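sorry to bug you again but im stuck and you know this stuff better than me. what follows is a protein written twice so to speak, once as letters and once as structure tokens for the fold. mainly i need to know what kind of three dimensional shape the backbone takes. anything you notice is useful, everything is just below:
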Amino acid sequence: MSRPAKALIDLNALRHNVTLANQLAPQSRTMAIIKANAYGHGAVAVARAIEDLVPAFGVACTEEALELRESGIVKPICLLEGAFSRDEIDVAARHDFWVSVVNREQLEAVLASRPASALKIWLCVDSGMHRLGIRPEELVATYGALNACDHVASGIVVATHFACADELDNDFTRQQLARFNAGMAGLSGEGNIALSLANSAALLGWPECRADWNRPGIMLYGSSPFQEPNTLADQLQPVMTLKSSVIALREVPPGETVGYGARWSARQPSRIATVAMGYGDGYPVHAPDGTPVLIKGQRCPMVGRVSMDMITVDVTSLQDVAVGDEVVLWGSGLPVNEVARRAATISYELLTRMPRRVPRVYLGADSGS
């Protein structure tokens, strides 16, 4: 009998979320971001499930892109951080990877390369996040050099990334958009240039940022990028439900403690359920006492420090709890954002750090279920 911890991946929910992204900007194209193993959901399975819904995928590196190609994914794949070495440019040309140019060094590498076929380039502009990208005032010269290069394909896409799009009352997104547009003004004579601006938060919350290409990530997996309720984000369906089971029950008298460091002590006669789930399964080690889990469909507070393989839950208020009962840690009925907030982190971290020892069980779509 296998350990009960598992992550159920609802591919129908995934397709619903991708369809919502497409419907929000029907004039745009959607690049589905499936880096970091599709935010922990399994990049190959996710790509197969939505390949008919999107024209391209985005990943962080060549290794992630090659995994998709070797698994039979044929749609274009964009290397969002560009090529980390010159030999990767040749790999990109052979496998139809689109290559981002995010700094002068990558520009020079692309111009000096001799790829087997023309490169599709995404040119990243730093409009204020100050992480990757060329300065807006360098855009005209950089675009011109790429556009004049014999081995750069026509149709360069110009992109930027927003720092505060998840804060709908923060004007910095509009400031970034203004800087980006100022840089683009110098290319007004180049005809229609495809733009890519919106991540999940911008796609959901900033309609003016919906351009030729959108790059949704976290929203595809059913997690809102916002801290507050949002009409559009509230339509998302959770894709991952992290589950396990009760593996032990015990009565704890008043004054006795539970778990490492004796952090929690019983104030009354308490029934404690031990659940096969810990930080070795991706559950946040900093989750405090009171973080909710679902047992028999009801919220129960986690108590005591998270262990590598187990957590403990106060089920005193429940009737008829038994070893083997199902436990939901997040997902359907318990948003991952809520658990993340309790643990002073974000849903992105909880999802992407899900370890491989937790089996992914795919449901719906083409999973055969």
Observations:
- The CA atoms of residues 41 and 282 lie 13 Å apart.
- The first strand starts at residue 6 and ends at 10.
- The chain has two domains: 11-223, 240-363.
- Residues 11-24 form the longest helix (14 residues).
